[in-house]
Amino acid sequence: MTDFPSILVREFILVAYFFEVQFLQIFWYWVLGMAIGTLVSVFCKERIHSAVRSLSKGVPGGLGIVFASVLGILSPLCMYGTIPIAASFSKSGVRDDWLAAFMTSSVLLNPQLVVYSMALGKTALIARVVSCFLCGAVAGVLIRVFYKNQSFFTFEGFSEPKNRDVDPNIVMRVLKNFGRNLRATGLYFLFGVLLAALFRRYVPSEIMTAVFGGNRMWGILMAATVGVPLYACGGGTIPLLREWIGSGMSLGSAVAFMITGPATKITNLGALKIVLGAKRFGLYLAYIMTFSLIAGIAANLLR
Asked: In 3D, which of 97, 104, 98 has the Cα closest to residue 136?
């Protein structure tokens, strides 16, 4: 009869093996994502933000929403960095519908996460980029239609954040930014790999297919709901998503998770509550859940 310590040792070895497999499969996507994110932040961030400010100079409203959503994805900032910079955009005359498009797409995606999401495969990567762009663009359109003559955001108390990439030595500037990136995502990355290894060992693929697979509305709704409390940061969820997709999660369920997760990350919600107020904050949550469900259904139908 096998004793309990032997069982624990065996399980530890198996989980460690799955951890190593997951780690080696996704490690370089993570490193490449950090490298791209660092380069964009150091060399392109100011140009991207200048492009947003320039939207108010002769760009038609509808086209401005499209540009703003694209620039939001290109921006390397997280939500706590996006809101202060959006406050400075507002003072520069950038319209609320453009700000809504920029802020929504920015919280959902950034260059680092785009590269990291390559680990999910080409189809999931395209679905993520397209759905995040559309989520930002539709948010801008809704603000344009329903808040045309009203102010939607309250940026009182916010000022443009200081640029931390100011070291005169360009090499040190890049290394310091990469180090901040590593500290911000490293633990989440390792924890995500561990969760993926535990799912591989203890959760049969049949369960994942039954819960999140197929074209059923239930799977998409479950994924959108799970994304709310589970999402920590992109570095933690990519290994898990990769495992789930490989175990039978449908593309639509993955899309729903990738929208509600970052959009309802607890630190993001705290910042948004300040600039939106209670009523509009509720509208934001309702919009995110509704859009994630529609995007998930569309992804399953179009695949």
From this structure: 104
- Return the H-helix or E-strand segment holding 292: helix 266-302
Distance CA 280, CA 33 (A): 33
The upper half-sphere exposure of residue 64, i.e. CA atoms within 13 Å in the direction of its Cβ, equals 21
Look over the chain and give the mean of its residue pLDDT values, rounded to a whole number.
86
- φ, ψ dihedrals at 42, nearest 5°: -75, -40
Question: Residue 161 gets which letter from DSSP?
Answer: P
pLDDT at res. 259? 94
The three-class DSSP label of residue 68 is: helix
H or E segment to which residue 287 belongs: helix 266-302
Q: How far apart are the first and last CA of the chain?
A: 50
> What is the C-alpha separation between 72 and 66, in angstroms, rounded?
10
The amino acid that residue 167 corresponds to is D
Question: Which one of 157-166, 198-207, 249-258 scores highest in mean pLDDT?
Answer: 249-258
Residues 6+ apart with CB under 8 A from 115: 29, 32, 33, 36, 37
With beta carbons less than 8 A apart as the criterion, state whether 16 and 51 touch. Answer: no
Q: How many domains does the chain have?
A: 1
The 8-class DSSP code of residue 162 comes to P
Q: What is the pLDDT of residues 1-59, one digit of tens each?
A: 457 778 888 888 888 998 999 899 999 999 999 999 899 989 988 898 888 888 877 67
Full domain range(s) for residue 249: 4-302
Contacts of 210 (CB under 8 A, 6+ apart): none
